[in-house]
Design goal:
75% of the residues lie in helices and 0% in strands. The protein has one domain: Vanadium-containing Chloroperoxidase, domain 1, CATH 1.20.144. With 179 residues, the protein is mostly helical.
Amino acid sequence: MDLILEKFNLIGFRAINDLAGHNVWLDRLMIFAADKMGYLLILSVLVLFWKKNSLKRVLLVSWGSALIARFVFVAVLRYFFYSPRPFLILENVKILMNHQIESSFPSGHTTFYFALATGVYLYNKKAGLIFLALAGLVGFARIFVSVHWPLDILAGAILGWATALMINKVLARFLKKKQ
């Protein structure tokens, strides 16, 4: 099974990272998506729900689950499962972004933004789909710029999604008991 996962990671990484370095505008877009676009997503949640009655709940679920997923669950997983970043072990990698040498599994960025996007989706399906697509772009871009493997992104997406669903359920139970 490990060999299959390693092959998936290698083939997927090469297919995506090999797209880098051919078009300066695509490279710049992917660097932006991998590093800065998430800040726009974080602010967009506030803007999108500013005048809604559900603002506090949406912020609690989206931002709360994103923070818990990234700074609790990702940290715990990285403690137990070390995975070197692709640029550390592969040759001929197109490195478009500098990054720390910590474990790459799971992707903290992808986990954070999928939790955020799922939180938005739970309260606004149309906006949530856009957020999920942009979270997917962040994940894709993290491979493109050479800092993650495909399984890092997949695990981050699943972890972020599951955390948002869990936080939403816990919040619903808490609010129900409070009434």
